[in-house]
Description:
Layout: H1 3-39, H2 44-66, H3 68-73, H4 77-100, H5 103-110, H6 113-125, H7 131-148, H8 158-180, H9 186-205, H10 217-240, H11 243-246, H12 253-265, H13 271-298
Amino acid sequence: MDAPAHHHVDRQRQVRAIGMMLAAVALFSAMDSVLKLLSAHYPAFQVTTLRGLSSLPLVLGWALATVGAKALFKVRWSLHLLRGVLGVAMMAAFVFALRSLPLSTTYSIFFVAPLMITALSVPFLGEKVGPARWVAIGVGLIGVLVVMRPTGEGVLSVAGLAVLLVALAYAISAITVRLLAKTDSVQAMMVWLLALMALGAGVLAAPDWVPVRGEDAWLIALLGVAGALGQYAITLAFKWGEASLIAPLEYTALVWGVGLDLALWGVLPDGMTWVGAAIIVASGLYLLRRERVHVESEHP
């Protein structure tokens, strides 16, 4: 294929990846608000189990219809197990944090994840990150300190630290997706993440299991649908687009977080949270801009 035609196809893939990422963020924001509603009534590991179980039938049905059972077993088990462990830790820590933090504050801290992905892409994926991008990552971390305010007023709490753990686990998981995408199907990645998350969290949740209330059935159904569609969209986004191009679009979650906080819980972020979030988002958008310049210089 000649270069201009190839470049056009490449650009189309990037645009599709961006659309998928924006859809994924909206779906996950809906899912997160359901997780927050459920976290008030059930332990964190139980909510994590419900998250895995509610989406699994939908994803499994789709996987069997599209690639069949055989493709689900020809996989790199070590990386899938790593994602499963990360998935349980990430979801349980996230649910734990949501119990006491508003969505918007949780998202503001979580937004270091794209910066972590960029940093981790150097040792794990061999991507090049220049000095300007390292500065942007540093500035983003300062933004996190502003949101968490270690001086005492802010959310430097166990919940705040749990969100940092979530961001790190997410970043490592995103890198494993990049590695797995070379050999394993999207279907296998989704099925095993949910199955391992449901199984792992289920074992940990069993001793403190709380009977599920009838009135929460529709919430759990919504959790399953939003989670399955969001997972599908984000997996495609990372498969089609460069990690460093797609990741900063996570920031649109802040808009959803503030809206959902206001609509469902009647809370708004305080001034310092806005300032910190703005610093984190600005550093991420700078990374996105650097990436675009970097990509365009490679494809004149």
